[in-house]
């Protein structure tokens, strides 16, 4: 049986022509089976390469064909593969260069030299790419790849796209209105996005003004507060994936069982909404608490803390965690400089600029925006489930069910 192996080093669409061309050549050469994959020979697992090893190892493969030896591997393990083929009586042949054999001294030397040359060529290319990217960064250019919707790359740096900027902001607001329900947004707007594409857009740090880990490098579409709140919504929504994601109840994903740590499920018994533990391995399986009781206790905790929470609107803003990380980096850089270690020109100034940008970001809950709500706590009792859910996600850190009919442990942020 003749088996062909085709490979490109990346999964980019631009490589489709190469992989298709290799497959066509191998099939024309008489291969009964062609294994094709888009994988780097230096990074991660190559399922196709592993499959080829397994086929040869089991025997029955008379010949392995590749377009050239570099398609087998550029990391040196093609020599071991050739030795395996020799031990199994399997010939290895290239479409453009003839048989590769290791039984004779001359063949072993030729195959080994080609393997080393292929590996060396890849290392030289990688070094050139890294050097080019380094020099562009030092020259002030960004190497950020594709930019998210709402931005564009002008050849030198990322900047807001005036044609899409307002539409991107509207898109974000629409997603927030739907509690980050991506599927619902796509259905309601009819936009030609995939759920995965929208989630990748939400997660892109450029939306927060971060380019190559440098804060404030471009105008931010969303604030740190908005991004943090969106992450909470997405975290809650992740537990619903695969179920009726279009229905979001008040406490979906927000109440956890103390015994097993799993989220309680929404069920209806005799028309009464309840939250129940549905983990079969939990000692409290099948038990739960009424949604109305959870609602009452959460509102009571918020009302109890209303004065303190309203007062916090006047406190200095809490800086994001990233600011502390940057402070540590600045301190270490200054210590290294004092010890005589040479640093890149402007490195400390760049980190100080990054810190300054971070200090302008508020990582605290939006106490100022909810001041009036806390000053009139009765408003919480009249809030709809959707309105109250927004407040709970913003200000409640955890709701733990303690196993009783009314027992909860509620922790505010």
Explain what this protein looks like in three dimensions.
- The chain has 413 residues and is an alpha/beta fold.
- It has 4 domains: 2-134, Rossmann fold (3-Layer(aba) Sandwich); 140-243, Hect, E3 ligase catalytic domain fold, CATH 3.90.1750.20; 249-315 and 362-413, no CATH class; 321-359, no CATH class.
- 45% of the residues lie in helices and 15% in strands.
- It contains 15 helices and 15 strands.
- The protein has helices at 16-28, 47-58, 78-88, 105-138, 165-177, 182-189, 195-203, 224-238, 291-304, 306-311, 321-338, 347-359, 371-375, 378-382, 385-395, and strands at residues 2-8, 33-38, 63-66, 91-94, 98-100, 151-153, 158-160, 210-211, 214-215, 255-257, 265-269, 272-276, 288-290, 396-401, 408-412.
- The protein has a 5-stranded mixed sheet, with helices on both faces.
- Strand 6 and strand 7 form a beta hairpin.
- Helix 11 (321-338) runs antiparallel to helix 12.
- It is extended, with a radius of gyration of 30 Å.
- Mean pLDDT is 79; it is low at 242-246.
What topology emerges from the helices and strands here?
Elements: E1 2-8, H1 16-28, E2 33-38, H2 47-58, E3 63-66, H3 78-88, E4 91-94, E5 98-100, H4 105-138, E6 151-153, E7 158-160, H5 165-177, H6 182-189, H7 195-203, E8 210-211, E9 214-215, H8 224-238, E10 255-257, E11 265-269, E12 272-276, E13 288-290, H9 291-304, H10 306-311, H11 321-338, H12 347-359, H13 371-375, H14 378-382, H15 385-395, E14 396-401, E15 408-412
Parallel strand pairs: 1-2, 1-3, 3-4, 10-14
Antiparallel strand pairs: 4-5, 6-7, 8-9, 11-12, 12-13, 14-15
Helix pairs in contact: 11-12
